[in-house]
Specification:
heterodimer, A: 199 residues, alpha+beta, Ubiquitin-like (UB roll), 5-stranded mixed β-sheet, 31% helix, 12% strand, B: 802 residues, Aldehyde Oxidoreductase, domain 4, 3 domains, 6-stranded mixed β-sheet, 23% strand
Amino acid sequence: MEVTLKVNGRLCSADVEPRKTLLDAIREDLALPGSHAGCEHGVCGACTVLLDGEPVRSCLMFAVQADGYEITTIEGLAPAPGELNVVQDAFCETHGLQCGYCTPGMILTGHALLQRTTEPTREEIVEAISGNICRCTGYGQIVEAIEFAGERLRKANAPRDLKGAGANQPQVDPSAETDAPQEGVLKAAEADTPHGDRP
Amino acid sequence: MSPEPAALKFVSSNRRVREDRRFVAGHGRYVADIVLDGMLHVALVPSQHPAAKILAIDTSAALKMPGVVHVLTGDDLVKAVDPLMNGLDTPKVRRFPLAVGQVRYAGEWVVAVVAETRAQAEDAAEKVRVTYEPLPYVIDGEEAATDASPKVHPEHGTNVLLDKTFVWGDVEKHFAESPRHLSFRVVWGRNSTVPIETFGVVARWDAWREMLDVWASIQMPKYPDQIARALRIPANNVRVHQDVDVGGSYGVKRGIKQTVLVSHLSRILNRPVRLIEDRLENMRAGDAHGPERTFDVEIAFNDEGIVKSMKMKALDNVGAYAGRSPFQLGKPVGAIVGPYKIESVQYRAMAVLSNKAAQEAVRGFGQSPTNYAIEAAIDKVAAAVGVDRIEIRRRNFIRSHEFPYLIPSGTHYDSGDYHTVVSKVLASADYEVLVKERDALRASGVMAGIGVAACLEPSGGNSSFEPLLNEKNTTSTWMDSCRINIDGLGFVTVTIHTTSAGQGHETLAATVVGEVLEIDPDLIRIVRPDSLACLPSNSPVGSRMAIMLGGACYHAAEKLKAKLKRIGAHQFGLSADDVVYAQGGVSDPGSNKTLSWAELVNIGHRQFHALPAGMEPGLETTHVMQVPTGTKLPENGRVQMYPCHSFEFHLVLLTFDPEIAKPEIRKYVIGHDCGVVINPHIVKGMTLGGIAHGIGAALLEEFSYDSEGQLLTQSFMDYLLPSSHEVPNVEIVHHCTPSPFTVFGQKGSGESGYLGSPAAISGAINDAVSPLGISFSRLPIRIAAISDAIAAVKNKQAEDYA
């Protein structure tokens, strides 16, 4: 039967048997082979995709059930060919993988967690990835990768650390002394340093 | 100050692993991603019986199903193919991709159904009717070894494939002289490394070119040769494409029967055919199972706990066919005394057939089970003489000044400093505090135990166990190769000649060639030619690639550097010894003139008139590397097995509730010495991943059969894999004792962690239950086994009290 899936922001139509899993449809009909078949009974997590941002096992779902959801596969994370997103780059930095087979599912799971919080505890990371089995790494460098990606995401939009002021503190130029306005400075600091370019 | 040795620029530095980029983007190229025009799909009909005669196969209904192209039985297949390679000298134990005449284990593939889609093939497989006459069967290995048991291969006359006893040194004398003896049995349950990607293969026969193209998720030495032999075609008609990423293997992806099956199908159907095992096919009958071993050990020692001699009998239940698995009893001969100065050993290796799935190679090739038995022995000696388990190991360790150290079975250990590694681990973990913590936990009513294990990782992957166990085999090399080409524009391309399953061989090769040529490894292209364009390789087995591929790359790069120096020296009118090579340029120290990389490349590629007499144009070198120390065949049952020996020391604190009994690892520290590390990220990942495998082997994973011969654990719901909850944060303490036998002093690390963690975890559980006077001698030690054993003690105490 005809099904229309929104995958990585693109609408795709496919003619699939009703019994075809979402995983098989993504791989075979949509030609997106980054999602992998591991156990095909919902334990290993290699087939993980995001459905409206939440990790799900695409081997346990029929393609025809996915109509109407925003589906994200690993191919949807990289901003451009040859360019990695923060989580993908963090996995490269810590070598959070070996054979790469569980990796797309692991990264999507990590990405979904970091969309909720950029400051997950170690326990939260362990819990989040506990549905994704990795046989290569023993998980250590995967946990490190997600921690590192969180750190980078936290810092990504943080202002420069100016004259001792922390990331979330008003950036008051001490040399301005009493001239520095204490009220309303947060708003101004978003765009500028206090007192503009005054020497 | 004495001059420092030349600093390594890229080797040992924390450079990224170049393979990772494609994998994090979902752009790996696995076998299931290979889609050929007109490709057909295979599904398999499994046997329900552990042993039965095949009386009839009715394929007529299956052939009428939609999309079905062909249905193949063993009787048809056997007419066209030869039996699969059998490493032992047991010609009557014949193995084909499909059962022929008789099934020998539940799940064995009986019929292959070929259709336009996998779903159609599966639908049709359900319509195949096989009529069986059940036969007697045997599941237990010891029972199978008896004369009275049903024969798995009646033509062979016995279920014993291999029964060989080695005596190295004066065992009886040492036993007679030793004041104390003990004996025990430990059992290693049937488990394996179970990659998340099952095995898969695509084959395409082209009758016009007489060429069989193969893409496979493979880690198998001599893979093209074995395919050609079984199919009775010239080996240069088989072209294996090595640019396929393998989704995990850790030894098991052997794939010969699957490949022969689909290759034959492609040949008769003239279309590409693929088989991607589903999880059930993989668990029941793929190359999924590992060693299943019963050890009977006797130890002779003195009152100080110094172990003088050991007798070990290892009986391996290898399942229904002889694959690579019996050799897994041979490899541990090269480290049969572990890190200890045991003076003599009697070793009886028995490989026994049973009606279970055939075993294949698993990470460590039999070493981890053997290490478990050795470490159990050392723990028992410590308990017997009342000495701390770490102190007893220190007393028995080989001393650092004694290397190279010749063990009784004929292997020289290359180097090591076991005492220092142990001291560093104890300091890092604050051992005394750890002991207090355990005691405080015990006082609070929790079961708590500390486990230790010290063991070796033989590395460098020679194949000496083959001639050791099969005298007709005269293999004395297990070479690997590298080819380097500098092209006309000066860019460097390195070829490696095997598939990889996450070991980072591209990073390894680029790092080593970059180091020698003093150029940025990121500028070096690594390619994997197909097998017909390849130099010899024996695939990444036996923890060998840092040593063998690293070594081959080093030597090929040194040859290339020598050629560049000769070219440069010739321009200066000097001999090659008088010029200096640095960062791609060659200079004359006398005149300070330098020829740059670009100038040297130009001469090599375009100016024959400027080349030294007799030199070939172009800038290309190859090196085929022999295994270091691999110089001769075994003599009198003694052999130099592998060249290098990495060392690891594990220290574990774990706790569990006495009733629920789910172990929680509170602290895990490993001291690891694999010589000079080529890439720290890769070695770290191998070690942590190996420990996770060991946790599975120790606590969770087993291919269990019931008394009816049916596999009970055939999905991930029953065969339990460690998740992030079960694997603790592990602290690695590094030490580096370079190997004198390798180019940088590197040793292997592909099996690290796995080789000692089952022993350490088992030791920790036994320490935890020791106050109850019980212990466990069989892996995996599952939660139910612990809680049942504790409950039994408590019930007994209650009865005794009453």
